[in-house]
């Protein structure tokens, strides 16, 4: 089996590659961003792509967007998505596509070698491997407000956004780096399902969602 890995963490990327090698699975390319992923997929046409949801430059949904673009060009491409937590909107989009060869696992599952390798083989054969936590959250998604998915810190950042603060002002208020605030804001947009749009400002839409929840 020939695999492409897209993961921005050098350690996790190397760990997955070594784990696969121990199982006789060849990694033909390992990249750290979505654009390179598309390039190596076109070049190698692998049997499976293992892709992190969040990669540079914004660490929001680059990996998932790259996967969806890749599957438009290669509908039969098996994809195993890894995520730090459940990205419900994208999980639904992948799972509901009707195409085989789809997996969605939380990153913590990689530590269970047998479970991870089983998922790799199953997805590569055209089957599915959906994390039980993903299933549980999707079943409950209709009963929850998206704001509930935010962490306490993300809600705090969104609350300051609602007060009209810039990222720099929020960083100063919370005594954190500008980069940390940018990451929190990216997480907020992703969890609220707010994609870039020329018609609507994501920051305003996020604040509206916050005010409606209060």
Compact summary:
This protein is an alpha/beta fold and 214 residues long. It has helices at 10-22, 34-44, 62-73, 88-95, 113-124, 132-140, 152-162, 167-174, 178-191, 202-213; strands spanning 2-6, 26-31, 48-52, 79-83, 102-106, 128-130.
Question: In CATH terms, what is the architecture of the largest domain?
Answer: 3-Layer(aba) Sandwich
Please compute the radius of gyration using only Cα atoms.
18 Å
Provide the CATH superfamily of the largest domain: Response regulator
Strand residues, percent? 5-15%
Order of helices and strands: EHEHEHEHEHEHHHHH
For this structure, the CATH topology of the largest domain is Rossmann fold
Distance between termini?
51 Å
Q: Overview of this structure, please?
A:
This protein is α/β, with parallel strands linked by helices. The protein has two domains: 2-140, Response regulator (Rossmann fold), CATH 3.40.50; 146-213, Orthogonal Bundle (Arc Repressor Mutant, subunit A), CATH 1.10.10. The chain has ten helices and six strands, in the order βαβαβαβαβαβααααα. Strands 2-1-3-4-5-6 form a six-stranded parallel β-sheet, with helices on both faces. Residues 143-214 form the HTH luxR-type domain.
Provide key terms for this protein.
214 residues; alpha/beta; Rossmann fold; Arc Repressor Mutant, subunit A; 2 domains; 6-stranded parallel sheet; 51% helix; 14% strand; elongated; transcription; CheY-like_superfamily
Outline the secondary-structure elements.
Blueprint: E1 2-6, H1 10-22, E2 26-31, H2 34-44, E3 48-52, H3 62-73, E4 79-83, H4 88-95, E5 102-106, H5 113-124, E6 128-130, H6 132-140, H7 152-162, H8 167-174, H9 178-191, H10 202-213
Parallel strand pairs: 1-2, 1-3, 3-4, 4-5, 5-6
Helix pairs in contact: 2-3, 7-9, 7-10, 8-9
């Amino acid at each position: 089996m020939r695999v492409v890995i897209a993961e921005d963490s050098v350690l996790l990327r190397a760990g997955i590659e070594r784990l696969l090698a121990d199982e006789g699975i060849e990694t033909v390319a390992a990249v750290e961003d979505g654009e390179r992923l598309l390039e190596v997929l076109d070049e190698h046409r692998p049997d499976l792509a293992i892709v992190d949801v969040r990669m540079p430059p914004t660490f929001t949904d680059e990996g998932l967007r790259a996967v969806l673009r890749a599957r438009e060009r290669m509908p039969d491409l098996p994809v195993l998505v890894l995520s730090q937590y459940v990205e419900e909107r994208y999980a639904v989009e992948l799972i509901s596509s009707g195409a085989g060869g789809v997996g969605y696992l939380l990153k913590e599952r990689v530590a269970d070698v047998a479970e991870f390798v089983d998922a790799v083989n199953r997805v590569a054969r055209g089957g599915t491997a959906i994390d039980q936590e993903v299933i549980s959250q999707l079943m409950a998604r209709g009963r929850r407000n998206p704001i509930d998915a935010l962490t306490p810190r993300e809600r705090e950042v969104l609350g300051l956004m609602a007060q009209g603060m810039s990222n720099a002002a929020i960083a100063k208020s919370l005594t954190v780096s500008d980069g940390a605030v940018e990451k929190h804001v990216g997480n907020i947009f992703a969890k609220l399902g707010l994609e870039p749009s020329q018609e609507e400002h994501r920051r305003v839409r996020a604040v509206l969602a916050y005010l409606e929840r209060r």
